Every structure is written in structure tokens, then in C-alpha cells.
UniProtKB/TrEMBL annotation:
Cofactor: ATP
GO BP terms in the entry: carotenoid biosynthetic process
A Pfam family of this chain: SQS_PSY
Pathway: Carotenoid biosynthesis; phytoene biosynthesis
Chain residue ranges for the region called Disordered: 1-24
CDD domains, per database record: Trans_IPPS_HH
The protein's name: Phytoene synthase
Keywords attached to this entry: Carotenoid biosynthesis, Transferase
Length: 325
């Protein structure tokens, strides 16, 4: 569920629907959220099918809010005004007096029923604010701080919705979210650049003899960019390996879905490598057949065999999420 995938752009329109009156119908609200999930992210939607229903429904609700928030900042009223409006919506949902619409109503129920720390969603909105401000990231640590907010926070949400709140499990869940976001960044280099955005660590570009501003003004692929993309995928892969240790900490019936999500997102990196690390002139896509094969692999072996890593401390950039549990 990491941010900045353009799949399902504009899906927030469903979040404004007002079927069901002031109090709404809980089942209809969740159904609307599931539709946002189905249209908004094919990779995450595929993995979520493996979740037990007790988790699948609240996950769809939180995803829907994330999707709405993303689209409001990128395509709605936009900018910091959109972030402020989203903060007010979150305030009302947390207070139990949500704005009208299925997403807000469903979110209010989930926040109350699951004791979901609002810090997680506040972190997401802070990450969206950074986007609205046009922030760029000098170092991997700075990029990790962004990824912690727009994706690590979602990993923490997932763990809590699975009734898993140990420090170790939340640390690994945040690792997985950050890994997925780094994969997104590596995949979307050209697409982001053409929108005037640069997420690659600028220090790495300079180490390759590149001027970030000059490259952003004329984004072209060459071996130097490829080396930076490879380096970012390496950082993501290290976090995927750490996150594998956390899957065994989840309820057994939740493990296949998280394993599938990890495999599918990590596979995007494989496609980028197969394209000779050129994510500037085109976008890496995992085929439906490949996703189906990875889903079957997750079902057959939901708990990866790992050696160590489960007790590694949280990333410095995600510690605030772990401590909010």
C-alpha cells in the first residue's frame, strides 16, 4: 500500500459518496472502501485477498483513506490546503464524528474498534505534506524518513489490525513498508521526474558526478542513474530480508497475504533490473501471470526461512511509529 502508485488515480471520488444517510450503513461503507482498493492498487488488492475477513475489511478501510488522501493532494484541491483538510477529516474520524461519506464513516469505526494509534495516520499526512512542499532528499536516511511516513506507517497499521503490537513485529512491519516505498522510488524515477519530483538521494547522484537540478530539468537515463537505482534496490532488498523475520510473528492466517505482498513488491525490483535498471524511459510492471505465481508461492510457503534479523532494532526513521503502539 505504499504511496505514489498511479494505479486508480482519481479513485477518491468514491470517498465522497453519501449513500446510507448520516450514520451510513457499515457494510455498504466497507464495500465502497473495497472498491477503492480494487481500483487503486492491483498489487495490494491481489495480496489482500489472502487476508482473513476480520483483517481484510479494516485493511480496505485504511487503504481507502490513504488512497483518498493521496489523490486529494495530487489531484483534488492540492497542496497544503488539501493536507489541512485531510487533517480535519482525521480529527473528526478520531472523535467519532466523521464527515459524510463511506470512507470517513468506516475509518471512524475502525479507529474506535481497533484502538488504532492516530499517530500512524498523522505520519501519513505528514509525508503528504512533504510532497506538497516539494521536498527532496539529500541522503538515504532522509528518504527513509519520508518512506517511514507514507509506507512504514501503513505497515504499522497492518500489524495492529492483525492484533500484533510487539516492538519486534512492528519494527519488521515498518521495514517492509519502507522497502516497498524504496522499490516504488526505484521504479518511478522517470515518471516522478516528468512531474518535477526527485526522490533519489541527491548525495548519491552527486557521487556519480551528476547535478540533481540539471538532471531533473532534462531527465535521461545513463549508467550513472542505473547505478543509483541499483543502490536503492539493494537498500530495499536488505529491508525485505529483515522484514521476512517479522512474518513469523503474525497470526498464521495472516502470513500468506503479507508474504505475497513482500514477494510481489520485491519482484518489481527484479523487473527493473531486467530492464537494465532503466526506470527513466519506461515503468517496470509485473504481469498478472507472475503475480498469480507469486501468490501461489506465498500460499505454499507463507513463513520464509530466515536466520536472525527478528530482534534487530527499528530503523531510526521508524522508531517513532514503533513506540506509538
Amino acid at each position: 500500500m505504499p504511496r505514489r502508485s498511479p494505479e486508480g488515480a482519481g479513485a477518491d471520488r468514491a470517498g465522497k459518496s453519501d449513500k446510507g444517510g448520516a450514520s451510513g450503513d457499515a457494510a455498504a461503507d466497507v464495500a465502497a472502501c473495497k472498491e477503492l482498493l480494487r481500483r487503486g492498487s492491483k498489487s495490494f488488492a491481489a495480496a489482500s485477498l489472502l487476508l482473513p475477513e476480520r483483517v481484510r475489511d479494516p485493511v480496505a478501510v485504511v487503504y481507502a483513506f490513504c488512497r483518498v488522501a493521496d489523490d486529494e493532494v495530487d489531484e483534488g484541491i492540492g497542496g497544503l490546503g488539501a493536507v489541512r483538510a485531510l487533517e480535519r477529516r482525521l480529527d473528526r474520524a478520531c472523535a467519532g464524528t466523521p464527515e459524510e461519506g463511506p470512507v470517513d464513516r468506516a475509518l471512524a469505526r475502525v479507529m474506535a474498534e481497533r484502538a488504532l494509534p492516530r499517530v500512524f495516520l498523522e505520519a501519513l499526512l505528514e509525508g503528504l505534506q512533504w510532497d506538497a512542499e516539494g521536498r527532496r532528499y539529500a541522503t538515504l536516511s532522509a528518504l527513509n524518513a519520508y518512506a517511514a511516513r507514507v509506507a512504514g506507517a501503513v505497515g504499522a497499521v497492518m500489524a495492529v489490525l492483525m492484533d500484533t503490537r510487539s516492538e519486534e513485529a512492528l519494527a519488521r512491519a515498518c521495514d517492509l513498508g519502507v522497502a516497498m516505498q524504496l522499490t516504488n522510488v526505484a521504479r518511478d524515477v522517470g515518471e516522478d521526474a516528468r512531474r518535477g519530483r526527485l526522490y533519489l538521494p541527491e548525495a548519491w547522484l552527486r557521487e556519480e558526478g551528476m547535478d540533481p537540478d540539471a538532471w531533473l530539468a532534462r531527465p535521461l537515463f545513463d549508467a550513472r542513474v542505473g547505478r543509483v537505482v541499483a543502490r536503492l534496490l539493494g537498500a530495499a532488498e536488505a529491508l525485505y530480508r529483515r522484514a521476512d523475520a517479522g512474518i513469523a510473528m503474525l497470526p498464521r492466517d495472516c502470513r500468506p497475504a503479507i508474504r505475497a505482498a513482500s514477494l510481489i513488491y520485491a519482484d518489481i525490483g527484479r523487473v527493473v533490473v531486467a530492464r537494465r535498471l532503466d526506470s527513466v524511459t519506461g515503468r517496470a510492471v509485473t504481469s498478472k501471470g507472475r503475480k498469480a505465481w507469486l501468490l501461489m508461492q506465498a500460499l505454499a510457503s507463507p513463513t520464509p526461512e530466515v536466520r536472525g534479523g527478528g530482534d534487530a532494532p527499528p530503523l531510526a526513521e521508524t522508531r517513532f511509529l514503533v513506540e506509538a503502539r
